[in-house]
Amino acid sequence: MKKLVVFAFILLSTQAFSQEQGFFGKMLSRTSFGLKAGGNYSNFVDAAFETEGLPGFHVGGMINFKLSERFSIQQDFLYSTQGAKLKNPGLFFGQKENIELAYMSVPILLRYQTAGGLFLEAGPQANMLITDDEDFAGYLGVEKFADKVDAGIAGGLGYEFQKGPVRGLGISARYYMGFMDVGKFTSASVKPDFKNSVAQVSISYVFGKKN
Length: 211
What we know:
- This protein is α+β, with helices and mostly antiparallel strands.
- The protein has helices spanning 2-29, 89-92, 134-140, and strands spanning 31-45, 51-52, 54-66, 71-86, 98-113, 118-131, 149-160, 169-178, 195-207.
- It is elongated, with a radius of gyration of 23 Å.
- The N and C termini lie far apart (50 Å).
- Mean pLDDT is 85; it is low at 2-12.
């Protein structure tokens, strides 16, 4: 009787393990990983001071989870340099011309991709501040210039090669519009309620691209 119970237990455990492995195997077969890098052109929207675009860059990794033949969820983890160039720096901020910030950007986008490789994507994005601009905080007499968290919406389009030796290589353009105030300070001369705006052009590569 004991042998029968032990045998039944082993059989059930093996079946449960096989089912679990099958589930995770299916999830993994729908998942692709890759790297991405490119250029930024950032600015502030609704700022009380005059600004223009500031060149920067982004670099990091990405995960794509396939929902169906055409739809997937694209999540990026990007180190992104942002900010703005001041037209009249001496008016509020001394003589330093560029407000320079750096974020860890995490967009979670719904992607639609055609059989030929063209894709469209859109969804929310969260940004965690990595590097603040201490010089401008000093000019304003405050401890922090930018808030630690920024969030908004991103959308873009691109193309990913589906065949041949360059399969998995992609090029894309994306635009991000922030919904939260960038400034984390109180000043009588400058309002902190300006928003982040970033245009990006990227080159990416997906490893082990799934069919």
